[in-house]
Design a protein that fits this description.
binds adenosine-5'-diphosphate; six-stranded mixed beta sheet; Rossmann fold; four-stranded antiparallel beta sheet; binds magnesium ion
Length: about 220
């Protein structure tokens, strides 16, 4: 089950990146120097409209910087706020199948499906119809989809905004476990406006008025 990304540490490096949407004079993102070089669980906190989703679009290349540069070797997977907008198939197995992007034997496919379901705490869910899953289970299925397509960097855009407390904690713990496993380097950048989630992160930054702060330890983090 080896693949080319297996042992590579994913990294992302912004150099003075500024961005504004067409027609807007003011920069929404200003001289941003986001840098992620180590494996870990990274969080960016920001209020509604502060440009968090825009930052993720810059990272995954959906939009380009107005000025500045972005370098990355990461193979990026996305998890959005609403899993119903992202899951396409009727059950867990078929959803994972459409995310396997290589020609491998049936036996390997079955092993991979079991492996990624184990990794997100959904052992035995293979045949479960998606409509019977909780919101948190759906989010963990989208994370499993990212894993099965060999992503080594997962961007999560307010993934718990629609979840109850129990599901929220399970999704947080799933990402914590995955990003702590040094056998298969995986990083996650988690966008949130929920302060209480920060304790799960290895490092936290705040996006405010176009500026991204430097990385801080969650225990020392203060709102500006
Ligand atoms: N495609 C777009 N075109 C023009 N303006 C946009 C577009 N997408 C977002 N914006 C504006 O950019 C600002 C930041 O949006 P966004 O990155 O979605 O913030 P957040 O995710 O932090 O809520 C908002 O004022 C929003 O209205
Ligand atoms: Mg957003």
């Amino acid at each position: 089950m080896r693949d080319s990304f297996e042992n590579e540490i994913p990294h992302i490096n912004f150099q003075d990146v500024s961005f504004s949407y067409p027609g807007e004079k003011e920069n929404l993102i200003f001289k941003c120097n986001l840098s992620i070089k180590k494996q870990g669980f990274w969080m960016v906190l920001g209020k509604n409209g502060s440009g968090k989703s825009t930052l993720l679009k810059l990272i995954n290349g959906i939009i380009k910087p107005k000025t500045g540069f972005i370098h990355s070797n990461a193979n990026i997977g996305m998890v959005f706020q609403n899993p119903d907008h992202q899951i396409l198939m009727p059950n867990c197995r078929s959803e994972l199948l459409i995310n396997i992007n290589q020609n491998i034997s049936q036996n390997e496919i079955n092993k991979k499906i079991q492996y990624v379901l184990d990794q997100v705490g959904m052992t035995g869910f293979e045949k479960r119809p998606v409509h019977t899953l909780s919101g948190g289970q759906k989010q963990r299925l989208t994370i499993a989809s990212a894993l099965i397509s060999n992503r080594n960097f997962i961007l999560l855009d307010e993934p718990t905004a629609l979840l109850d407390k129990t599901s929220q904690l399970k999704v947080l713990q799933t990402i914590k476990n995955l990003t702590s496993d040094h056998k298969k380097p995986l990083s996650a950048l988690w966008i949130t406006h929920r302060y209480e989630e920060l304790t799960y992160a290895d490092a936290v930054a705040e996006l405010k008025n176009g500026f991204l702060s430097s990385w801080q330890e969650p225990s020392k983090f203060h709102y500006n």
